[in-house]
Request: fold
Amino acid sequence: MGMSRSLLVLGLPAMLFGQAASFHEDRLHGRRAFVLENDQMRVSTLPGGGFIGEIRFKSSDPKKSVNPMRIPHYPTIDPFTYDIAKHGDLYGAGIQRRLMSGYMGHFLCFPHFAASSPAEFSQDYEQHGEAIAVEWKLNEAGRHGNDAILRYSADLPMTRYRVERAITLPAGETVAYVEESVENMMPVDRPMQWVQHVTFGPPFLELNKTYADGSVEQAVLREGRGTTRAAASWPQFKDASGNTVDLRVFSGHSNTWVMDRSGPRVWFTLYNEDYPVLIGYILESAPNPWVFDWQENQTVTEKPWDGKVIARAICIGDSTVSGLRNAVERGREMGLPVYSWIEARHRRTQHYVFFLTEIPLGYKGVARLRMENGHILLTERQTGKTIAVKSAREW
Reply:
């Protein structure tokens, strides 16, 4: 995804562009936001931690214009401004303090997934890595032809990486194209974890009404509190009591998926049976074999959760193991690696898209997703009907 240096200046109003897509700065729930939009769709991402906090249709119908992404029930701040003396009582003082201070929607877990070690936490290195804890700086933004393009990046001084993300929103589509890179600034090879933590929340997320689909090969279930895992069929399996469990529906119970990597891409979608909106992601299959389907339904009572958080995250990437050292020591699960290597002074890049489409009420879910002839084609479960989403850009 090349970018021209002749992009238009920042902040020009969308009305000057007619039907073209545009970029401008705005506020999202009180925080500075970089906004891409066209006549159908709006995407907002926050320089504070790089969170993608808004992906929604532009519509006068509140059911259609719903933002599927998780927005906390409390006011947030940019995580790099967190100060324990000022903010400890609001967001907590534990390992998740910076994450919870700024948590919105989709964020990048890098260079590790989930918990840091006690020794790392003692050095102020926390949950889900450094990428969410720093400021992402604007590199380029504006129009390139009829596309709106944003390129922003962050330097990670503690772990000595650089991360960069470019988002392109074309005119006339409800698909955003992402190019994301990580660069090892050290003169040594080293292990890493690279996971997209795509988090959905109310009102779009609702118990027993919000369903996920995906290119899943099998589910992987933990047995008790140990590390032993058992494979289960997707999306339904029989539990120990003989009851049928549907892993598609939001129930508040987390599970793990192994993705089907037989093709070049993997995907997942999410919809609520009471809303005419489906959101989906399509990613390269090789670097994204794992999904941790994290679900929370008002069980955590510590600050700032307060027993109020309703959230479901499709955490897709190279690992579902908490902590980089744990991943390295474990090595593989189900025959698959649970971490990656990056070479000295090396840059790695992957591409993915996220999209919206309108669906009828009573939609049965996505049985199959494929990309053909400039469209994303979604085949409905049970009915076999197809929805076509325009996606003309090569990636």
In short: The longest strand covers residues 347-358. Residues 1-18 have pLDDT under 50 and may be disordered. Residues 111 and 192 are 5 Å apart (CA to CA). The first helix runs from residue 84 to 91.
